[in-house]
Structure formats: structure tokens, C-alpha cells
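Researcher: Let's try something more involved. This one mixes different molecule types, so please make sure each is placed in the same coordinate frame as the others.
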Amino acid sequence: MLWFTKYPVENLLILSSAVFCFGIYTIVTRKNAVSILMGVELVLNSVNLNFITFSQFVDNAGISGNMVAIFVIVLAAAEASVALAIILGIYQNFGRVDVDKLTSLRN
Amino acid sequence: MSLNEILLNIIFYALALTGLFSSFMVATSTNMVRTAFSLLGVLFSFAGLYGLLRADFLFAAQILVYVGGILVLIIFAIMLTHKIANVNLSNESTSSSTVIAVVCILFAVLVFIALTLPEYIKINQRNKPLTEMIGNNLLSDSLLPFEILSVLLLACLIGAVYLARKEVKE
Amino acid sequence: MDYNWIETGLQLSRPELLIIGGTVAVIMLSIFKQLSRTFLFLCSCAILIGAGYITLLDIQSYTGQTILFKGAIGYDKFSLFFKMLFIAIAFITMLFSYPVIKNWTSGFVEFLSLLLCCTLGMIYMASSRTFLMMFLNLEFVSITSYIMAGLLRHNKKSIEASLKYIIYGAGSSGIMLFGMSFLYAITGSIDVYTVGNTLRHLDLPNSFYLITSILILAGFAYKMAIVPFHMWCPDVYEGAPTPVTAFFSTGPKIAGFAMMIRFVDGVFGKGSSPFEWQLIFIIVSVLSMLIGNLTALQQNNLKRLMAYSGIAHAGYMALIFLTFTQDSIGSLLFYSVIYSIMNLGAFITIIILEKYYNIDNIQSSAGFAYTNPFLAICLSIFMFSLVGLPPFAGFFSKLLVFMSVIKPLNYLTLFAILVAVITTVISLFYYVKIIGAMFLKQGGNFTITERVSLILNAPMAILALATVAIFITDWDWLFEFCKSCSL
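Model: All components are placed in one shared frame. Result:
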């Protein structure tokens, strides 16, 4: 295989960790519900990158990692569709989609 | 070292850096539309990485489903929930030093794992194309998850349509 | 090619097939405007009764362990037990939610079909053996739950509960998958038992186990509503329609425990393991008991109070992971049966209070016992049982869990049991606060618009009776049965 020194497993893992952390950061700090959803997509993408890396590079891994990644993609699509439907419902009820402005439930 | 190797490495690092920078933009950009297009960058660069890893099927699925489906959905949501006439689509965030510290610790921990983990695994790249194996797997090992997924998508369809539609006046 | 495994698998999953077919049938039938809502409701009930009957036949005759669908699910008494329990919970929920949902302008069929789908997901959660199935079914139950929480979509509280639920749920399941990917990297397998066997032959640093377990626990803990991931719980319970809340507080929570048990059994196994994973559960369950019970003291809203009570109960249930023997798993199964009975009962009383008397907090229920003594007595029975006082079933369930934990006595288990006993005493205060408000205080007039439906009163009475009867009569057989179903 054609790499400079060795297989770039570490590099890919660090990349996915960084994207994962950015995703968590987005989920925690954003106010806009659509942005929070984007954070979730970042997290799921980093998970996918992990699974595919391991599935392709670990010696006896089989293709189950690829299968998990496919299912994650489909589930992300399903979840995004439901989440956006809910966000539209929020917009109809509250007139805005900022999470910190939702205070009908006491805390 | 051949020209192929150098080219491959350049593409790899270019994709990785694009992904990293775009996800940073998703996390910090203050403009809603810019955030969405940064997400596009992340998704495309990840698709490219899957291609480099020779996960051919995932490469196609990533572009078709994520870029073609989810991202368009998200951009629709932005347009439906913001007044487009208002050009300044701001995207606030409440960042505090605590959150940044926690995320940094998390990152440090994950990098630690990323650096130690490869010691324990035997690394060897797969060279066969995947689509055929995935097809066979979907009808053997993953048959039940595949079927459950269809029920899940039915439930999703019902739910999303119910939640998003306008009230029907009788 | 050999396709026998598909045939065997399909033969042994008749209840699931019935539920899938029934869901589609209910959705299709709802197109016809001539069919009344009662008819659709009866159809859904018939589906659940049929599925429950088949499971009952299976569970009596079956002993042994089989793997179906190429290792995707395990078919044993453990999964059959939970199949039965979830179908029963869904049936009772459907029964008592009918008087509420029949008046909704929209969302009636959606409620029925989503409840059926969610039941299917919970059944598969309890039997899944691979990471793929676990994640898929966790998401299945979660996605149907998000929609069910937002079914009253013109109600601000309901849709807000739904949004909060989906944000927490999506985030934590992503974190869980990230942890699972590390286990997959080390072992090259997604089957929990293969992962466990491979891990036993490897010498991995403790830090790896610690980080991976914490990441994975995020997904499970969110479903079980135990402490670091419990924040969604009170808001979602308060905002969601009350029948849906009743379902959330029992079904998905117990399904999370079932999946956790199978995961721990596979990856770490009973007995010694390379990593002291029990420590994580001690922290988590002690925190759940403390935070759940102490926060519940300050609540006035009944549904919020039940949410915190649910967090506390999840803490008691998580105690069994400290020992994780066949006995302690058996006592968890017993606990989940009793917990479902008393929690569903308590929620029926809350539904009646809300629907007919417009009461949703403790203050406004002052003096209620003189208006409807029957309901007040039933509520007291459920509350005392939730505390764990002697003449009720809750006493035994708690006692058995504590007994099974204390067997290998050391400082840690002793500490956990001490916290459990102290918090049980604390919990007495807030449960009794409700009863005290109803019986001892003078209150306003409670006008009732229509008679309380029999479909609400009858299950409430039966569940209250069961709570008492399990204590008085010979409850040993139930416990023995639970033990025989343990993994």
C-alpha cells in the first residue's frame, strides 16, 4: 500500500477525535436547534470514520464496521428528518428555534 | 518513493485538513448559512477519505445520503425557520471557559487512546472491493437489522409527516 | 445456499411478526373513515393480546438458549421474559390511554401505531447481541419516543419536550457508538460475546477500559435515566402527554436495563474480569439515588415528581450491577415487574386527576380524598409501594435487590446499601406529602364533568390489588420464575 511510512491509523483516529469534540462542543454551546442538529451530524460522522478505519485496517475485522457505518448513515437520515419536523413544530409554536428561549417547562 | 505515493499523501492530508477546518467552522462560525456550508465541507472531505480507505460503497452512500439528503434537509430547515429577508442569519452560541476546558480534556483523552490503541491491533489493509461483500452481508448477518430498519423508517415517516404537516381543516 | 436459519428465525419470532403486521394493518385501516376509533383501538389491543398469548405459550415450553439470525439476537428465557413484560406494559398503557386519546383532534392512529412500533423496538433491545442491533434498536425506541412525546404538536410543552428529548438522545447515542468503535477496533467483532472472549485474552491498560466504558455508558444511562444523563427526564415527563409519560417511565427504561445486562454479561461476564467495572456502577447508582430522591422533595408538579422518583428507582435497579450474579439479575427482573405494576398504577391515578379534576400538582389536590376516596386509596397504595413499605409488593422487590447486593459484603457494597436505605427513608417524605395533602388538608371543591371511565378505574383497581396480593399471597413462585429467566 502506498503511504509514506505506515498506515495512517493514528492520523485518522486523531482527526475523528477532533471532529467528535467539535461536535460535542457544538451540541453544548449552540442556541439554535438546527445548529445543534449539525453538531449531532458531526459526532455521527466521526463515529463512521472510526468504524470504517477499523474495518479497513484491522487485520481480522471483517466488514461489520462498514455495516455499522451504513446503518449509522441511514439512522442519521431518519433522525434528521424527525428532528427537523420537530424543529418546524417548535417554529410554529414559539416563532423561533432558539433552545434557550424555550421555557414552557419549568426547570 | 514514487509519484503515486506522494500524490496520495498530499490528497490525504488535504482532505483531513479540510475536514478539520470545516468542522471547526461548524462549531464556531457565527453565520447560520456559513455553518451549513462548512458542514458540506466536512461531509465531502469525509467522503473523500472513505474513498482513500477503499471503502467504495460508503464513499457513494456518504455523498448520496449525507450530502444529497441530510444536508439539503438542514438547509431547508434553516430557510423555513428563519426570515430570509433578514440577511443577517446570526447563529449565537454560549461558550464558556468551562465548556472549552471539558472539551479539551475530552480531546486529550481521545488522542491518548488514538495513540495507544494501534499498539494492540494488527494492521493490514483490505484490498478487495466491498460492494459485493456488503450485499451478501445484508442478506445474511445483517438481515434482521436490515428488516428492522424498514419498520423504523415506516415509523419515522409517520412521525415526521404528522409533526410537520399543516392542520387539515375539515 | 442454506436458508434454514431464516425459517427457524421466523418461526421463533411470531409475536414480533404479528406486531409488525398489525402495525401496518392499523395504519391501513385508518384510511377508511367509516371505521370508528374504538375499532382501531380494539384491533391494536387484539394484536397485543395475540402476541402476548404466543409469548406465554413459548415461555412455558422453552428452556435453553438459541442464537437466531446469524447471531443478531439471542433467543432464551431472558429475552422471552422481557418480551412478555413489554407486551404487557404496552397493553396496559394502550388500555388506559384510550379515554384520553379518543378526544384528541389528531394523532390517534399515530399513537397506536407508534406504541406498537416502540414495543417491537424494546423487544429487540432486550434480545440484541451485537453492537449493530443494540444501537439500531436503541435508536428505534428513541425515535418513536421522540415522536410520541410531541404528539400534541400544538401544545407548547409537548413539542418542547420532544425537542429536548431528541437533542439529548441523539447526542448520547453518538457518544455510545464512539465508545463501541474502540471495542470493535481491539477485537474486530461486533458480537458482544465474541468481544468479551477476545478481551479476556488481551492485556489492555485500565485507562482504555475506563474511557470506553464511560463513553458507552452514556447511551445506556440516557435510556435508563440514571444520573449523569438524566437531565432530559423531568422536562420530557412533564411535557409529554400523560399516557406517553407512563409508558416512558416503565417500558424504555426497563428495556435499557435489559440491554445493559446483556452487554455487561457479554463484554465483562459474570465473575472476575480484567477491569473493575463495578466501581462505575457504584458511583452512578449512588448519585442517582441521592439526586433523584433529594430533588424530588422540592417538586410540586406530580409528573415531575414521578420523573425524579423514576431516576431514584433506576439507581436502586443499577445496584444489581455491583454483584452481577444470576441471583441479582433475577431480583432485577422481579423489581422490574413490580416497578411496572406500581408505576403504571400511579400514572393512571395521575391521568384521572388531570383529565377529570384538572389537578396536576400537589397543592391543588388538597382535600381530594373526600371527593373520590377510591382513587385516593389506590394512589396511597401505589405510593407506599413505591417507597417500599411492608404490606405492599414494593417492599419485597427492594428487599430482594438489597439482599442480592449485600452477599459479598465489603466496604463498597455496604456503602451503597447504606445510601440506598437512607434515601429510601428520604423518599418516604415526598410520597407521603402527596397522600397527606389528599387526606389531611382541607381543600376546595372538585367538580367533575363526567363519570370516571371504567377503562381507567378497572386497571387502576386491578393494579392496586396486584400490589397488595403479591405481598399477601405466595410471591415465591414469581421470584423463582424471574430467577429461572435470568441470564
